[in-house]
Amino acid sequence: QVQLVESGGGLVQAGGSLRLSCVASGSIFSINVMGWYRQAPGKQRELVAVITSGGSTNYADSVKGRFTISRDNAKNTVSLQMSSLKSEDTAVYYCKLVQRRNMLSGEYTYWGQGTQVTVSS
Q1: 21 in helix, strand or coil?
Q2: How many whole angstroms separate alpha carbon 41 and alpha carbon 94?
Q3: What is the rounded CA–CA span in Å between residue 70 and residue 92?
């Protein structure tokens, strides 16, 4: 029983910044990956950035150098600092958690409800 709740979305002008946050609650295991995906109208959901419980990160080429993902393991939260925003960044952003109890266990995937990010001009 895991819930993910995103916050921080909104309307911002091109070139501006926005910070998204996601809080995970419930049975969170030590071995996990949290990340952000986004989906624009008529397009597939795509990976934006992910971060492991050990701190390793990976970014989509389109956001590399502009976005920074971070996490607080003690609070089970993940954040996405977005800078130099472009109109192409407009989408619904979703938080994702993939976890397993230990290295010999199966994986479980959870999604948040999403938060809208709109970049104008």
Answers
A1: strand
A2: 14
A3: 19
Q: Is the pLDDT of residue 32 over 90?
A: yes
What digits encode the pLDDT tens for the residues 69-114?
A: 999 988 899 999 999 999 999 999 999 999 998 889 899 999 999 9
Given the structure tokens 């921080």, which residue do they identify?
A: 8
DSSP states along 31-95 = EEEEEEEEE-TTS--EEEEEEETT--EEE-TTTTTTEEEEEETTTTEEEEEE-S--GGG-EEEEE
Nearest Cα to Cα of residue 85 among 9, 10, 8, 14:
14
Q: How many residues appear in the chain?
A: 121
Other C-beta atoms lying within 10 Å of the C-beta of residue 56: 9
